[in-house]
Here is the input.
Amino acid sequence: MTATKKRIGILTGGGDCPGLNAVIRAVGKTVMHEYGATLIGIEDGFEGLVEGRMRELGNRDVSGILNLGGTILGTSNKGDPWHYPVEVASGKVEIQDTSYKALRNFKQAGLDTLVAVGGDGTMHIADKLGDLGLQVVGVPKTIDNDLAATDLTFGFDTAVSVVCEALDRLHTTACSHHRVIVVEVMGRYAGWIALHGGVAGGADVLLIPEIPFTWDSICRKVNERATHGKRFSLVCVAEGAKLPDGQEVLRGLDNKRTDAKQLGGIGAAVAREIEDRTGLETRVTVLGHLQRGGSPTAFDRVLATRLGVHAAHCACRGPYGVMAALQNNEIVSVQIKDAIAKLRTVPADHQLVRAARSLGTGFGDEA
Ligand code: F6P
Here is the structure.
């Protein structure tokens, strides 16, 4: 008797991120070549699962996409089946529990396992589907690098490279015009992108959510540099850094999203305050989605490939309810529940924070 071909579903959820296509390629090639399984691509994250939008992916679909940014499947951060925006008769949008639709479509498509590639929000949903009996396997993705139980997520290295290049370019203008330039970077509630990007690009002040800052401390650093003949400074601020009164700066709230808060705007607030307090000409640059676009770095391609191959093996032969993770440079399986237990933020005494302080970099908390 011949065993029936396994059918593996794959989706990419949350914000796009360099390396997603490298994962789809790695999962696809492994399940097809090593297990003779069929790969079903689910469109636009969990939206496609709720709405039954999926298609078979063949060898050709998963070839030639290693270096491609974005995701060939599409993605969404509004697809939580338990918190799904549905337009009702009045034309209004209501948030409803549509998880029964996701389960029904999974079964109707004859899927054995779902590979969910995403960040914190995607892993929470994958975990809930696992609790309902679906075989799920996670692959950690996010430029924010804030998932627990893995040392790194793919996409982070590419985002850090973008920040580094931007700081290099802004450095010349800051220096030539004797200006302070504030650069706002992404990262949600974690300061990893600002910390690594800022150190790589030689920022003079680094502001991250994990270390509260004061205006006095930032301005003292900037003025001190000016009195030592450096009449310019680069300030790298994470979008999630909080103002001295403890407030986050939001550019909006969108209740349809898994996380309603849309961070953004702290760069302008910091620039305004520095200019007012020091009198130094100050500019702000918000890097925004440039950090998520384009080709993944070689490092992210390798990491995405390793994670994807591992997830494919799990998808075809178990264990389930796990996420592929990088720990001590080995790819291992961790429980999805462990990955979502808490957000991985920067410890205030992290080795890289201490190293930056040794170089004289300010974190806005120095007396
Ligand atoms: O999680 C990735 C991320 O780029 C965050 O760094 C940022 O806060 C958020 O997504 C932006 O989301 P959107 O693309 O929906 O504006």
